[in-house]
Specification:
The protein is of the alpha/beta class and about 280 residues long. It contains nine helices and twelve strands. It folds into two domains: about 140 residues, Rossmann fold (3-Layer(aba) Sandwich); about 120 residues, Rossmann fold. Helix 1 packs across helix 2. The longest helix has 28 residues.
Length: about 280
Amino acid sequence: MAYKSILTILTNPDTAELAITAAARLAQAQDAHLDVLVLGVDRTQVGYSYIGTGAVLMQVALDRAEADARALEAAAKVALAEQSPDLRYSVEAVVTQLGALTDVVASRARFADLVVLPRPYGPGQGAEAEAVVEAALFEGKAPVLVLPEKGLGENTLPKRIIVAWNQSSEAMVATRQALPLLKGADKVNITVIDPPTQGEERSDPGGMLCQMLVRHGVHAEVSVLARSLPRVSDVLARHIWDQNADMLVMGAYGHSRFREAILGGATRNMLEKAEVPVLMAH
């Protein structure tokens, strides 16, 4: 298994170079094709308007979204021009309303082996940034690699990876989706925090997962940690630091919102504080 189709989605020109550089490095390391989706987003939600003004407001918002898409497309092409000439890529620019963004992103993400996105939180990030992450994860069913501000760091392919393991189906899916990266790492640390006292793993937390990964040629080990800090995300963040890890793999947890989902608090907390790339799947 390898990643052969990598997708990155741009909504903010300030993060275009970060996302494209990381995605391009991964695409070349995996001999993959890079797809760049540029989104001009109409953020207006017109609740009411006076007679005759509705069409004007809609046209102004559409013109602004198209201008944003053109600016993003230009920024993407500048960033792509700085990559290796051997990179195989395509660029698609789309204008969408915020309410239709989920369908647009999901339709592209479901055909990608990996989606690479900048962290959706921080200065200059609008509501559409988190909506793109959620759409790719929950509707597109794709693994998503969320980048911190420093991008991938020195190593294109991570050498020391933390796998957050809690026996959930989300954690299992994330681990399977991360196999192309886990197999190339020097060390994979399966981290179990406060393992349950009941269940099939009670006597050997993380042992069955470790065995599975080792059979794939992964250099895996298990760490069992106590929940010594108020939040699990705090424990994980400290463990990442202690292990000098350069990537975290974890399940993405969310809450149902009709047929869509929004990121749960624990997932959001981890993304907000992680200083390394986080690969998530649902």
